[in-house]
Amino acid sequence: MEPVVLALEEKYGEDVQFIIADTNNTEASPLARQFNVYYIPHIVILDGKGNVLYSDIGPQTGDFLEGYLNKAVQTAIK
Hey, what long-range contacts does 35-41 have (CB within 8 A, 24 or more apart)? Predict the structure, then answer.
């Protein structure tokens, strides 16, 4: 797992559920297919209602992802 994601999980772990879908693991494959994960890294952030707020492949910065995580937490609170 990327250091950026580990740091965000440490910071938001009580408010956000982090799920790692290993595309090499057959048990995780349905989840990866559900969100069209074919390349690593691929980050998908859902809001409190299960809607995709962000989905993209490639490395991401923590500051950039925090904006979406804050939106996810805010929608879950409402």
Answer: 41/2, 41/5
